[in-house]
């Protein structure tokens, strides 16, 4: 089967059929409607081969008719919807991390712990952090011989956090969370805004709504077909973009209210 490949994005190409024998059309186009009313893409003309009149004559005889491959608008919309939805989920995840602030159990994961013989180990290899209510963290040190080293690492991280060793369990540390100042809240709000702009308007972040929209419209523009179908497809993409942009703005505003209250 001769397969036609066009400059469409990966998400599109996984949902479309490009074949000289197979024509995939949406349900609304599966009636006895001429192919010319569907969305299709034309194969680009092949490069001219070198040679004289004989070669040109041979090429004319062997050159196949122009291939017309039908696309599936419904599959295109489904693929774009999945991408927009993934963007919303990714933003929620990042926003949740920012909202946690210092109440994040991963806050110490980047620290290095100095061991014996001038060796170092990552924090996660030496201890584990869990949330202990809204005002403290628990740190479990795997080896009690490293308890003091973990305490020193946390204090030295300049996080304004002072671990307290449990008198009944030398492997357990309680880390009270400092009060959240207005400066910290403003910093969180600023980080949320930067994250929102990145997921909404970035032209380099492939997960941003603008990037996905631009790529989709570019792919549709590269196709040929009945104007009203292509126009409707582009309009549907714009409608989807607006919906997910509104949803993203709503999530951003809610997250900002949480950190500033």
TrEMBL record:
Q: Does this UniProt record's set of keywords contain Protein biosynthesis?
A: yes
Gene Ontology CC: mitochondrion
A Pfam family reported for this protein in Swiss-Prot or TrEMBL:
RRF
| Region (Disordered), start-end ranges | 46-65
Question: What region holds the Ribosome recycling factor domain?
Answer: 91-258
Segments passing through the bilayer? none
Q: Does the keyword Protein biosynthesis apply?
A: yes
Per the record, the GO terms for biological process are: translation
The Basic residues compositionally biased stretches are: 46-58
This protein's UniProt keywords: Protein biosynthesis
For molecular function, the Gene Ontology terms on record are: ribosomal large subunit binding
Give the family this protein belongs to, as stated in its UniProt record: Belongs to the RRF family.
Protein task: Necessary for protein synthesis in mitochondria. Functions as a ribosome recycling factor in mitochondria.
The molecule here is called Ribosome-recycling factor, mitochondrial
Q: What is the lineage of its organism?
A: Eukaryota, Fungi, Dikarya, Ascomycota, Saccharomycotina
